[in-house]
Amino acid sequence: MSSITFDSGASGIAYQLGQNNKNLQRSLQRLSTMKKINSGADDPGGLAVSMKLGVSIRRTDAALTQVTATSSFLETQDGVLNIANSILLRMAELAQKSGGTTDTTSQALYQVEFSNLQQQVDGLLAETFNGISLFRNAGSTTVNTNTTLSTTISLAGQTMGISQSDLGAVTRIAGTSGGYSVSSQSNALSAATNISTAQQNLAQLRAINGSERNRINFASDLLTVNKENLEAANSRIVDLDYAAEMVNYSRYSFIQDTNMALLSQANARYEKILKLLE
Does this model's pTM top 0.85? Predict the structure, then answer.
């Protein structure tokens, strides 16, 4: 005899259907975001580690941006120093020509160009990068190697010094303040000697610039590698294994269809009994 009573089987199917629906919705969310951790409930420990890694990635990226800007500063500085070298070479050439067997008329013409080049050397001191002076004048004809600027690599906790080159050690010799000329043979010979000293100072400045650029480049390489490794570590925690999740989604979909069919059959049983009572 059939009777209408509490059906534990149907209730169990309904419960399993509800649980499976939660799993199905979670799987759909993961597939839509391509992340296996979308909330703290998914993996509390994994989320905490991922957040720490995220902070480290942002800090590394900010440090990398700072180092890149520093490298650009040094590259711009070296470009100006290279121009200064070209100017000094031309000045040395004029001094050599005027110091030879040259008449006074030619020496006067050489002096015109020499004076213009002295002014050009002085003008290099005013060059800037993003509003920051590339050079300084320490007030001596000897290069001052003290660092006046620095950039901090926060990830490694190190302070890397970069220099505002003491171009004043060059301009005070080869610029207008040096007081040299090529208007006569004796003046030209004196100018040639002093320009040689200015070239030595300039070579020292370029060597300092090159050493700082090398260190900055190595720091940039280190930060780039660290960032890639941190991103890979974070990816292993939060990024979704698409193939595995598609398998889970298919399984949850199949279970849902099965439970719906079973629940429908359980409900159909009561409908038959109710028809007998009509």
Answer: no
d(CA 190, CA 45): 76
Q: What is the spatial distance between Cα 41 and Cα 23, in angstroms, rounded to a whole number?
A: 13
Q: For the domain made up of 45-237, give the CATH fold.
A: f41 fragment of flagellin, N-terminal domain (1.20.1330)
d(CA 80, CA 255): 72
Domain parsing of the chain, residue ranges = 8-34+240-276, 45-237
| Length of the chain, in residues | 278
Q: How many angstroms separate the CA atoms of 81 and 87, rounded?
A: 10
How many other CB atoms sit within 10 Å of the CB of residue 109?
15
**Beta strand residue intervals within 15-67, DSSP E:** none
pLDDT at 6: 46
Torsion of CA 166, 171, 172, 178, to 10 degrees: 170
> In the prediction, which pLDDT does 1 show?
45
Res 29: pLDDT: 82
